[in-house]
Amino acid sequence: MSEEFYNVAEAASLPPGQGRTVSVRGREFAIWNLDGQFYCIDDLCPHRGSSLGAGNLSKSVVYCPLHGWGFDVKTGACESRPDRPVKTYPTRVVDGQVQIQLQPFSSPTPSED
Known about the structure:
Blueprint: E1 5-10, E2 19-24, E3 27-34, E4 37-42, E5 56-58, E6 61-63, E7 70-72, E8 88-89, E9 91-94, E10 97-101
């Protein structure tokens, strides 16, 4: 997989506490501004496929607008179902553009308790 970063939004267009869905190479991602730091996760909730970019952020957790599952935008961890995390992706801001890298930080793997 490419390690290239892709421009997805103007940093100024996403104030703290706001997020949105962006498309890169035919895939959708949710980006969030958490206190001036940008985070990227897979856009689709693993429960019923709703858009996490359309969710509500509280502290570092985005809540799915369909059934309320919460995901930490920093780690991808799911509050109610630890076995159903989402992937997180590296972000950076270059020349005022939020960029994401398609290589994930984390791959969701269910714990083997």
